[in-house]
Amino acid sequence: MALESVDRTHSSKVFANILDAARFYFDEMESRSLLDREKMPVVRDLRAASKRLADREKKLNRELVKYQEAAGLDKVAQLLASSGRKMEEHFESLTVTNYFAEKPQPLKVPLDSTLSLRENIDRMFKRHTKAGRGKQLVTQQLAEVHNRRELIESQTRRLQAIKDWDTWLAIANKLDKEKTTSTSNETEREPTGKRYRATKLDGREVFIGRNSRENDEVTFQLAQPDDFWFHVADYSGSHVVVRNPNRDKDLSPEVLTKAAGLAAFFSQARNSSKVEVHYTRRKHVLKPKRSKPGLVRLLEFKSITVEPRNWLE
């Protein structure tokens, strides 16, 4: 039988029976649900940034209205200066003839009675000059805010449109690198400050993924081909990588037991008394195409039974 793919609109897949088709369909739906859950924090951050920019845009528009209202104060000041009134007198308001209108008409101008007419006129000229500079600056800021909002909204739409893990992981890794670059100038971080857990066992660096995406990162980006890799058998859990810069054939029994104990502890089997843990070289760990984050296939491995223990404490 044939089943239309939930990932690609114009593709299909042929199955031997309805059970295989149903299994594939529900696996795809679960994968999409997990993907949406992974994307949500990034989409939420983008939406929050867009809201902040929207609030900033409203504030700038209010400032722009004020500057636009003050743009004609120079003409009002000129009318007051030519009104024939004494410059040192104080007025609550003055009515002048507005010659700048299409037809001359009376214009009532409110004034600050605590200031003289000359001081009111000087203030209007200053406000007009300041409004010109302010309007230009606010207009530039509005354009920048508008462009940033459009960019963020475009990024949000693209993220929401992602339906496959390969594309998402590529973008997520890029976002992580951008965050690291943006914060590198503010503070220097030790290796243990990274997202994954890190420790040392007898001088060897050990890295532990904290979720499915970090498991992929630790295994396929951080680990070298000859590093040792650990994972609990038959349960979900963290990928544990033990550095092997000298390309040793085997780990010491103590490091082997401790690394396996970490893999057992950071898994769903942590409350068991004894747990089986698989271990191998990183080069024997493969990532199946289009598989979920954290899912791997082992070409070869050995097993050890250990007590779950957190050696990070």
Assembly context of the chains = single chain
Task: Report how far apart the termini are.
Answer: 54 Å
What would you report as the Rg, rounded to the nearest angstrom?
34 Å
Side-by-side strand order of the widest sheet: 5-6-8-7-9-12
Round the mean pLDDT to the nearest integer and report it.
Answer: 83
Tally of separate helices: 6
Element order, helices and strands?
Answer: EEHHEEHHEEHEEHEEEE
Describe the fold and architecture.
The protein is of the alpha+beta class. Among the domains are: 66-143, no CATH class; 193-306, no CATH class. Helix content is 48%, strand content 17%. It contains 6 helices and 12 strands. It has helices at residues 18-70, 73-81, 117-161, 165-184, 212-222, 253-265, and strands at 2-4, 12-14, 93-98, 105-110, 197-201, 204-208, 228-232, 240-242, 275-281, 285-286, 297-298, 302-306. It has a 6-stranded antiparallel beta sheet with strand order 5-6-8-7-9-12. It has a two-stranded antiparallel sheet with strand order 1-2. Strand 5 (197-201) and strand 6 form a beta hairpin. The longest helix has 53 residues, at 18-70. The protein starts with a strand and ends in a 7-residue tail after the last strand. Residues 1-10 and 180-193 have low confidence and may be disordered.
